[in-house]
Amino acid sequence: MKKTIALLPGDGVGQEVMRGAVHVLRSIEKRFGHDFDLKEFPIGGTAIDLTGSPLPNDTLRACQNSDAVLLGAVGGPRWDHSKMRPEDGLLQLRKELGVYVNLRPVQSMSALLERSPLKSEIVKDTDLLIVRELTGGIYFGEKKRDVDRAEDALVYHKFEIERTVRRAYEQARKRKGKLTSVDKANVLESSKLWRSTVSELATEYRDVVTEHLLVDHAAMKLILKPAHFDVIVTENMFGDILSDEASVLLGTIGVLPSASLRDDDFGLYEPVHGSAPDISGTDSANPIGMIMSAAMMLKLSFHMHEEYEAVERAVREVLNAGYRTADMRTSRFQSVSTSQLIDQVVYRIEEDAVSASLLELYV
Ligand SMILES: NC(=O)c1ccc[n+]([C@@H]2O[C@H](COP(=O)([O-])OP(=O)(O)OC[C@H]3O[C@@H](n4cnc5c(N)ncnc54)[C@H](O)[C@@H]3O)[C@@H](O)[C@H]2O)c1
Ligand SMILES: CC(C)[C@H](C(=O)O)[C@@H](O)C(=O)O
Ligand SMILES: [Mg+2]
């Protein structure tokens, strides 16, 4: 199957982990006989340096003309004081592409249990999905700035809440049948609208158990009892914060993938982590969040379920075999570089293909 995929490596480790996604897609292409048209375009700080804009028109047009987009990460201290921010390129891209809902799965992995700062009996049954509203709220409200006064408006329209919450309910139906809506309805008007919209929709999804939690309570419960959660649905900024918090359950943010979707098959796929300026350039970043984002693309945009399984299995085997980048390292294992971990994943995808064809010879 021919698919056009725009690659936006961005800044810092974004560039390093994107190589992992490309190698993995090439091995999937070979093994399953697909044709992936992969082309790179600049975004973020790299794009500011090249073109003066964090989202050049050519990049946006290429994304709009693709079947899906893979993004590494944007930002870094180099552009922290520049007039234009790399992050604005990413926000504009999400808005222009209309990818209003962001799925961030967080599932404990037995190989990583000892890396979590929390007790393994607390984190071992973690299997939750954060559904984050992505193109509204305080990120996109009107901003004003005087010398000694600043303003960011937090605006939500009911349709924005409704479409995101519906997607969350659909996910809950396919999973464990529980939805936790997170808001700050004891203080914010936008949260009161959020809560009443969820309550209305709950009557249409009676097969799903609905609960409401205030965001401060949710932040605490996520650490105290992560297995309590199935689907968490929340607004843009709460979702951003809670997903970094949830990464602590696994011990590193480097393994978390995400999918940003709209109502057709198109999607923007990116790891949850940022450009990690503290480790960029050292070939030590964890490429798993990026690789699993590419795997989510195969499943959600291209409906390639077997291909998704092949990547997921390869990643699991690599971890079980003891390969760890520095962020996943424990006293029992030496760490390997980003490139070495990528090679191991690719090797397993290809080795799997060889054993599958040998098996065919015998049956
Ligand atoms: N989607 C994105 O493009 C995105 C997401 C978050 C932050 N950012 C940007 O990234 C820059 C740095 O932000 P930050 O430092 O707050 O967050 P960050 O996620 O880049 O880093 C936080 C910590 O996690 C570690 N980390 C992150 N990714 C890792 C990986 N793949 N492997 C191993 N360790 C990893 C870093 O080394 C750092 O210690 C900022 O400019 C921010 O705006 C971009
Ligand atoms: C870089 C930043 C704008 C972005 C966000 O806040 O959405 C990031 O933190 C994320 O989680 O994707
Ligand atoms: Mg974030």
UniProtKB/TrEMBL annotation:
Pathway: Amino-acid biosynthesis; L-leucine biosynthesis; L-leucine from 3-methyl-2-oxobutanoate: step 3/4. Its main location: cytoplasm. GO terms for molecular function: 3-isopropylmalate dehydrogenase activity. Mg(2+) binds at D216, D240, D244. It is an enzyme of class 1 (oxidoreductase). It is found in: Cytoplasm. The keyword Repeat does not apply. Binds 1 Mg(2+) or Mn(2+) ion per subunit. Signal peptide: none annotated. Its cofactor is Mg(2+); Mn(2+). It comes from the Bacteria. Its EC number is 1.1.1.85. NAD(+) binds at G274, S275, A276, P277, D278, I279, S280, G281, T282, D283, S284, A285, N286. Substrate binds at R94, R104, R132, D216. It catalyses: (2R,3S)-3-isopropylmalate + NAD(+) = 4-methyl-2-oxopentanoate + CO2 + NADH. InterPro entries: IsoCit/isopropylmalate_DH_CS (IPR019818), IsoPropMal-DH-like_dom (IPR024084), Isopropylmalate_DH (IPR004429). Pfam families: Iso_dh (PF00180). Catalyzes the oxidation of 3-carboxy-2-hydroxy-4-methylpentanoate (3-isopropylmalate) to 3-carboxy-4-methyl-2-oxopentanoate. The product decarboxylates to 4-methyl-2 oxopentanoate. Homodimer. HAMAP family: LeuB_type1. This is 3-isopropylmalate dehydrogenase.
